[in-house]
Amino acid sequence: MAVNEAPRISRQFSLCMVMEAIVHCGPISRASIAKQTGLSKQTISEIARQLEEDGWIRETGRTQGHVGRSAVTYEIVPDAACIATVDLGGTKVRAAIADLSCQVLAEVTEPTDARGGVHVISQIARLCREAAAHNNIPYERLRMAVVGVPGVPDQERGRIVMSPNVTGFETLDVRAALAAELGVEIVLENDVNLAAIGEHWIGSVAGVDDLAYIAIGTGIGAGLMVGGDLVRGFGNAAGELGFLPFGTDPFEAESLKVGALERVTGTVGIRRRYRELSGHELDVPGIFDALGAGDVHARQVLDETARYVARAVAAICAITNPGKVVLGGSIGSRRELVERVRDLLPLCFPSPVELDVSELGSRVAIVGGAAVGLTHLHSTLFAGGVPGAEISLPPAKVVKLVEAAQ
Predict the structure, then answer these.
(1) Superfamily of domain 79-195+363-398
(2) Where do runs of H (alpha helix) occur along 261-334?
(3) How many CB atoms lie within 10 A of CB 4?
(4) Strands, E, within 100-167: which ranges?
(5) Alpha-carbon distance values, 91 to 63, 140, 150, 165 (Å)
(6) Domain-by-domain residue ranges, the chain?
(7) Is it true that domain 5-76 has CATH number 1.10.10.10?
């Protein structure tokens, strides 16, 4: 290390410590920052002045009710910089804005453009702009976008593979196309990985470092954490549960495209099985309604689906031994399915499995995207590229979902 580098690195660590105290505890006085960080009041005053001049923090008032002189307090300027967080699904796409105070602002959502490819790229870019406008955020303050996708991001080429529910992404440089549309840095991540990150940040398994999040909806997939880190695997395809080789014949051509397990546990498979048994066509919510009305065919479909899901959970538990398993997604979060899976697990796995339902619901990937984006943004803005200089995120605040006009 060069001699003249030491003061800069020390200063960067100090800046991160001051910002972390303000992000977590603002409004906060310099005396309180000093108590938390161990930094001198002079150092804190110099850093606070710099941050205030640069527009990252602001004076918010003075402390009251204490003996002696009142003290100036500081808080972060929430919208000084923001990120977009997007959850792209086979049926819906959601976009939200997250600010520096870790507030996930109101989302906009609409059906995914069925044409796929560049049409979905344009849709995502439009929704990001609409989310910013809806929350009165000047678009030029957007620094990056984190996009959760239903497939495996090819980080070298920017395309998305193993994504049968959104067409046209396997041959398209999705990252470059989005960057051109939005004019900001783009991070692509598997949507269920983002869900696992969201649950680990503020969900039902917050702080549990060994967990599995299983999403069941249009398809089925898992986000796996071991020791607090995502399990990605070679090629980033870890957790693609749809391709577990049971449920249907894994050697059939359709199984290579969609996945043997996904063919029976996703929306299309559940609807197909009900049609085979009853001779009638129902959507998945209708099948759950029929179950409640005592429909024997609906009961058989959900019993069979639960057995497949229980086998998938057991397979994960045999490999990663998670402390908790969380079920989510439009199908996976249904009580009727969760209860069946919970009852079946002791019959196919010898150790107890703690099974929860996602508390974040449809927002879970949006929240995970906010965690990824804000961590990156804070590092970019305040760590100055110094290894180890970082700002931990406080619990997020999530504003109510807003549905876009259909």
Answers:
(1) ATPase, nucleotide binding domain (3.30.420.40)
(2) 262-265, 267-278, 284-292, 296-320, 329-332
(3) 7
(4) 103-104, 108-111, 142-149, 152-153, 160-161
(5) 50, 30, 11, 8
(6) 5-76, 79-195+363-398, 204-358
(7) yes
Nearest partner of 313 among 387, 222, 380, 204, judged by Cα: 222
* 112-141: pLDDT as tens digits: 999 999 999 999 999 999 999 999 999 999
- Closest to 380 measured CA to CA, from 7, 12, 1: 12
CATH number of 204-358: 3.30.420.40
Q: How many residues in the chain?
A: 406
Q: Which two tokens stand for residue 218?
A: 């249009």
- Give the end-to-end CA distance of the chain in Å, rounded to a whole number: 58
Alpha-carbon span 212 to 200, nearest angstrom: 10
Per residue in 341-379, pLDDT (tens digit) is 999 999 999 999 999 999 899 899 999 999 999 999 988
CB 205 within 8 A of CB 122: no
